[in-house]
Amino acid sequence: GETYPKPSSMRVIAVANQKGGVGKTTSVVNIASALAQEGARVLVIDMDPQGNASTAFDIEHSSGSPSVYDVLEGRLTISEVKQQCQDFPTLDVVPSTIDLSGAELEIAALEDRTMLLRESIDAYIEETDEQYDYIFIDCAPSLGLLVLNALCAAHEVMIPIQAEYYALEGLGQLMKTIGLVQASLNKDLIISTMLITMFDRRTILSQDVFDEVKNHYPDIVLNTTIPRSVKIAEAPSFSKPVVSYEPNGAGSISYREAALEIAKRSEQVLQTIASRKSGD
Ligand code: ADP
Ligand code: MG
């Protein structure tokens, strides 16, 4: 296959959509794995109390075990809670546990409540010589304080969009939230990527959704779409991403293709972020 270019500096990508079940976690897990399979150094931070990404990577995340919850509340560092993924030596995971569901209330009164994740990542990168190519932050299906922490820590947002009738409903709310973050908390943040998931070739609807999103956001939407596939859905129950569960299946191929597209767009994305930083 084609070689995946490595980004010239670290990309920090929050994967967000306040709708549940649109393929956020599945996309994080498989794109991160596909990039790691190609030798990229990747960190996945699970910011959803459900811990679905941790489950998919087969990472211990029972209540009380060291997790991103402890990191946000300052008890542990990312170095102390991250775990290396068994199947992918260049992929680390910061797990989440159900305890994280209490965090929003517990951090609400802190002055730096939206910056806790960013501060933890910065400290981790500074104190260790970890050199990630990509950090993916898997967000919970909400627009609450945990998601704000992800949007403040990230340089870019990737939005998975399910190819269904109501796909664009709720996107306005997400865009508004991202706009508010850009206006105050994280001025350099960009929406770099949209990915159409659960695409069904047999329906006109799927194609319509793709076309409509592509019309609205021509530079952001990946040309690769992720098909609806039983293998993608069942892979987590074997504690594997589909890219290793069924490497030659349609789901795998499309996620590897999406990862390649993301990798190839790196310099363009990094430049856009840099020009926001310099205020052009
Ligand atoms: P989110 O993180 O946005 O809530 P998930 O990634 O957990 O969404 O996906 C929701 C459900 O849909 C999961 O059961 C997952 O296995 C399934 N799923 C995700 N992507 C696909 C797909 N392309 N084809 C079939 N099922 C999928
Ligand atoms: Mg999820």
What does this 3D model show about the protein?
The protein is α/β, with parallel strands linked by helices. The protein has a single domain (11-273), classed as Rossmann fold (3-Layer(aba) Sandwich). It contains 13 helices and seven strands. It has helices at residues 24-37, 52-56, 68-72, 78-81, 103-107, 116-127, 145-153, 171-185, 204-216, 230-234, 242-245, 250-264, 266-277, and strands at residues 11-15, 42-47, 83-84, 91-94, 134-139, 156-162, 190-197. Strands 3-4-2-5-1-6-7 form a seven-stranded mixed beta sheet, sandwiched between helices. Helix 1 (24-37) packs across helix 12 (250-264) and helix 6 packs parallel to helix 7. The mean pLDDT is 95. It binds adenosine-5'-diphosphate and magnesium ion (MG). Residues 24-25, 48, 52 line the site of magnesium ion. It comes from Bifidobacterium saimiriisciurei.
